[in-house]
Amino acid sequence: MPAEKHDMPFDEFVEYVGEIARQDWIDRKIILPSVVVSQAIKESASGASELAQNANTLFGIKKNGWAGKTYIKAATEQRADGSYYTVDNTEWRSYGSWKESILDHNTYIAERSTDGGKTLRYRPIIGCEEYVLVCQYLQDLGYATSLTYAESLINDYIEKYDLTRFDAVEDELAPAGKLWVVQLRAYKSKNNAERFVKRLEGMGIISFIKEYMNLHRDLSDLNYDSIEQVAELVLKSLNEKKII
Questions:
Q1: How many angstroms separate the CA atoms of 88 and 129, rounded?
Q2: Does residue 146 sit within a domain?
Q3: Under a CB-based contact definition with an 8 Å cutoff, are residues 132 and 152 in contact?
Q4: Residues contacting 68, CB < 8 A, separation 6+
Q5: Residues 157 and 82 grouped into a single domain
Q6: Is 173 contained in some domain?
Q7: Range of the domain at 201
Q8: How many CA atoms lie within 13 A of 65 on its CB side?
Q9: Are the CB atoms for 55 and 32 separated by under 8 Å?
Q10: In this structure, are residues 44 and 57 in contact, taking their beta carbons and an 8 Å threshold?
């Protein structure tokens, strides 16, 4: 990851923010890295804005209960009719570094509430893996007043600069000859367990699982890295046996 400096070329800035956002996604899974990077580019002019240079803030987050340092600068907002207005002497959050700004932005998304924490304003965003939805949620839930905020993040930044590459997280494969096992549910009561099995049978899931296990025994060279391949083979086998 590039070292933090305030005169980064565009590509270096993108990589810097992207790697921090990616690691935080792995650690806390709050908001997709591609969206974080697009916001940072848009809201800080790729690190060249007054707030980015003087207050180390890459995002347009106002004080909103912030107990740390602030930076005073006018804010430009957009009304629902498309017209603009200015709010003088607006207090913006200020940080010790750009990294602090990125991490606090994500914390803000995770914790922002106007009723003492009873309702999380951005709950639909947390953990969402679809960047289009995340961008639209940001606009719909009032993160920014711009009427084209979501459209701009998607078209001008995420898709233009292939920012979804930061969303890819390295997978951990099971050791040779082993598989990760997912247990649907566990019961102390055998009767409850059997009732759940019957529910699954009614849904056709048990047939799918049994056929999967048969394939696992019979096809030692099956590539389990691809869940699509497994599903395709299972469905093909079930069709041939007229189970589905």
A1: 37
A2: yes
A3: no
A4: 93, 94, 95
A5: yes
A6: no
A7: 190-240
A8: 9
A9: no
A10: yes
State the total domains in the chain.
2
| Cα–Cα distance measured from residue 174 to residue 154, given in angstroms and rounded to the nearest whole number | 35
Same domain, 70 and 142: yes
Domain presence at residue 144? yes
Angle between helix axes 227-240 and 205-218 (nearest 10 degrees) is 110
DSSP annotation of 158: I
How confident is the model over 27-53, as pLDDT tens digits? 999 999 999 999 999 999 999 999 999
Angle formed by the axes of helices 10-28 and 33-44, nearest 10°: 140
For residues 192-221, one letter each, b for 16 or more C-beta atoms within 10 angstroms of the residue's C-beta and e for the rest, the string is: eeeeeeeeeeeeeeebbeebeeeeeeeeee
What is the distance in angstroms between the CA of the first residue and the CA of the last residue of the chain?
Answer: 50
With 0.85 as the threshold, say if the pTM is over it.
Answer: no
Token pair belonging to 212: 């999967």
pLDDT digits (tens, 9 = 90+) for 119-145: 899 999 999 999 999 999 999 999 998
Residue 174 to residues 74, 79, 189, 219, Cα–Cα distance (Å): 54, 53, 31, 17
